Amino acid sequence: MPLAALDYALAGAGAFLLYKFATRPDGRPLPPGPKRLPLIGNLLDMPQSHAWKTFAKWGEEYGDIVSVDLLGTRFVIINNPDAAVDLLNKRARNTSDRPSFPMANDLVGWDQTISNLRSEGTHKEYRKLVGRIIGTRNHVSKFDATSELQATLFLRRLLESHNDVEQAIRTTALALILALVYGYKVKESQGVIDDPVVALADQVLAEFGDVTRPGAHLVDVFPILEYVPAWFPGAGFQKKALRHKANLTSFIEMPWDFVKKSVAAGEDNNSYAANLLREGDLSEQRIHEIKWSAGSFYAAGSDTTVSIILNYFLAACKYPEVQKKAQAEIDAVIGTDRLPSLNDRPNLPYVEALVSELYRWLPVAPLALPHRAVNDDVYNGVLIPKDATIFANVWWFFHNEANYKDAYTFNPERFLGPNPERNPREIGAFGFGRRSCPGEHLAEVSVWISVTKAIAAFHIEKALDAQGNPIEPIADSMDGIISRPYAFACVAKPRSEQVVHIIDEDIARLS
């Protein structure tokens, strides 16, 4: 019986793989790593979850830079922050590209977002566009009132959440980003969102997680399968991609239609997209850039914001003395008759250190997002080959005792005093080089004010089981490109009877 067309495609892909595996660099040594097997390389060595922990062990065994081969694709893993700065910041011209993800990018269309754009020229234009509106702390200050209001609404949601802290945080993150990016006010009732834009966004973000999961789709291993028609037997991934692409397009267009109507109606909309739209006389390309850059912020910012704020609630449960010190500083500087504001930030060094520790303790992107080497490069005597996928093991940067003392302990004081430890923002908390998070200033302000107001208003403690015993949360993160703490239960108690009144006053002042 003759082979099906898909079998021919697989056979051709296999032949290509044999060729690729057989060709070696021109004598320059690759970074060391686990022993490779013929054809499959290090496929059997690859971890099923929490890859950053396995990569850290490899780093201890083989050195700061490790390489592995996965079915002909070369991966380079950086386990040293200085090497990451050298390769991804100082040599960004060669390492600022993204790897090819056929399923997510070519078939679904995620390559239009800032984080996944491959074209250096287009990516540069996107970053210039974003930089004009939120590229510096001074630029971001125009959104401070929105960030402060959403932070206080977060406190109101905590009061109404019946200790469903994660739901309150998630609602706030979604509401904040939609307000900042589009000027869109989500529909919610008693702290729970019931909104068509958010519902679609949730679906699309879940689908993004599916299409970027390593090894989930054969087309990511054999890119030639991208050209197999959807009607071919065994090409169900093509039908899935078409569904996901339609949802992604709707996700980008729905809030975009809202902000266009808002600007046309002359409404008081101070959002990112509205500010750019008001420039007028925009080319079709510029409209495309504004639309997709706006959608990129929502896609990239919602989960990361949730993760960082969750880190605080987990830390408050595990390290109550840290919470008490932060509250004491706020009470001493501000008092107890109002909530903190962004103007108070320079006067709250312990709180500042606490927020820095949130980024370090459980990083939201443990391996950052992967980079791609555009050309061969030699670093410290080893070859970083062209087309290699490069991972920076940010989790290990932050948990290696050589970089941070008692690295697994949550300790804000490591960033205080005459000899503070390294600021995690400098070594991967927001990515590297030209691929660092373009919304860093906006995200950082939003996290700081949300956490600081929560410290001032609430006492966080462990939940109790049926027998009245504290439920001990796990101080670790789940697997994923964007990681968050394992689910945990906690109790958020207002610090005083007047907190409710203070929250309502603050909402009225900022609205």
TrEMBL record:
Heme binds at residue 437. One of its GO terms (molecular function) is iron ion binding. The keyword Plastid does not apply. InterPro entries: Cyt_P450, Cyt_P450_CS, Cyt_P450_E_grp-I, Cyt_P450_sf, Cytochrome_P450_fung. Gene3D superfamilies: Cytochrome P450. Keywords: Heme, Iron, Metal-binding, Monooxygenase, Oxidoreductase. Its cofactor is heme. It holds the Pfam family p450. Pathway: Secondary metabolite biosynthesis. Belongs to the cytochrome P450 family. This is Cytochrome P450. It comes from Schizophyllum amplum.
